[in-house]
Amino acid sequence: MTAFAIKGWCPSALRPMLSGDGLVVRLRPRGGRLTAKQAEGIAELSQRCGNGLIDLTGRANLQIRGVREQSHDALVTGLARLGLVDDDQVMEAQRNIIVAPFWNEGDGTHALASELERALAARPFGLPEKFGFAVDCGDERVLAHAPADIRIERGADGGLIVRADGSHKGRVVSKAEAVETALSLAEWFIASCGAGNGRGRMAAHLARGAKPAEAFIGHAEPAASSSPDPGLYPSGALVGLAFGQMQGETLGHLAGLAPGLRLTPWRMILIEGRRKMPQHEGLVTRADDPLLRVVACTGAPDCLEAQAETRKLAAALAPHIATDARLHVSGCAKGCAHPGASDITLVGTPDGFDLVRDGSPRDVPERRGLTIADVRALVGAR
Fold it and tell me: Which residues 6+ apart lie within 8 Å of 118 measured at CB?
């Protein structure tokens, strides 16, 4: 297998990551929401300080791409004016929270997310940089498959539960107890596996045999989960982005449609209060759009680790993928765009594409060294 570098950390505003197209600067909007002013500002800064491309990540963060080193200070200054920069790198890294976008003032989601953010800022835990939280308190869980280690979510009986990722059940809590219980579970994680485990994740820790204290185990089932599609919802219009990427101009356009935009881990954006689906280049607005069946990372040449171009191939193959299947085209075996299993996974290598069925980019491939013509023939794309 081709060697690749696992960074063990994610880029941020204060600590960008070098990629093939320049520096990548990641933003973690508070509560998973941007005001219209913030979105307009990000759109302008992405064009002035970067290459104009913006990613929406699987952790519901935004990434400004192609930032020039000489423009980074100006970008951070502009983002700080918009209230999008933390005081230091440690605080920024720890504030890793995904918030379900369909919240309303009555379900407690937004209030609990804000309380959790304040508590994390006040208590440096030394958590691994990829360790995160999910706040998912609507009638149905929508973040069941989003990457998170501790979940505050709706239980099957309608109440709230706190659940460790990797555990099928959680502990029933009141709104007043939820955040403190989640933080106590984080403290247990650090104490039981050590703060030096910089890449540690909760599910893997439990799979190795770790058992949380009795106070965290609980016996409550989580509520049923769903996977939202683009469309109209009571809280607004949900639109997708092809491969989670857009031009800065597109974000500026969306900012003009609503008082705020809510980010999601499905590479979709909820336009608050919108009662009509917008029509704009680069938006995925139909639930049956073939692009929703495929996932692809940035790929070569914009990613230094990638061994192949990915998105052009994924777009060409998308119409030939079954409606109930998923294709993942990964530039290398890291699988950044989708670490989990897919029906078909193509992994770029120096010798062509490896093909994995019903697995992830790191699983043993069924076929190796496929050409693009081979791949197209296998999926019926002549």
Answer: none
Report CA dihedral (254, 255, 256, 257) to the nearest 10 degrees. 60
Place of tokens 């697995």: 359
Where are the alpha helices (H) located in the chain, listed in sequence order?
36-49, 72-81, 89-94, 109-122, 175-193, 202-207, 214-217, 248-255, 311-317, 372-378
Q: Look at the chain and report how many structural domains it folds into.
A: 3
Residues 6+ apart with CB under 8 A from 342: 295, 326, 327, 328, 358, 359, 360
What gap in Å lies between CA 275 and CA 59, rounded to an integer? 26
Q: Over the stretch 111-153, which tens digit does the pLDDT of each residue have?
A: 999 999 999 988 888 888 889 999 999 888 999 999 999 999 9
CA distances from 319 to 148, 191, 243, 380 (A): 31, 49, 15, 10
Identity (one letter) of the amino acid at 252? G
Mean per-residue pLDDT for 144-166?
96
* Residues of the domain holding 357: 290-378
Q: What is the pLDDT of residue 197?
A: 47
Rounded to two decimals, what is the model's pTM? 0.91
Mean pLDDT calculated for residue range 321-348: 93
Q: Are residues 138 and 181 in the same domain?
A: yes
Q: Is the peptide bond before 361 cis (omega within 30 degrees of 0)?
A: no
Whether 10 is in a domain gets the answer no
Q: How far apart are the first and last CA of the chain?
A: 29
Is residue 169 within 8 A of residue 220, CB to CB? The reply is yes
pLDDT (0 to 100) of residue 261: 98
Contacts of residue 108, defined as CB under 8 A and 6 or more positions apart, other chains included, come to: 137, 160, 175
User: Any idea how long the chain is?
Assistant: 382
Q: Give the count of beta carbons closer than 10 Å to the beta carbon of residue 226.
A: 12
d(CA 56, CA 263): 8
Could you tell me if 279 and 298 lie in one domain?
no
Segment 189-200, tens digit of pLDDT: 999 986 444 458
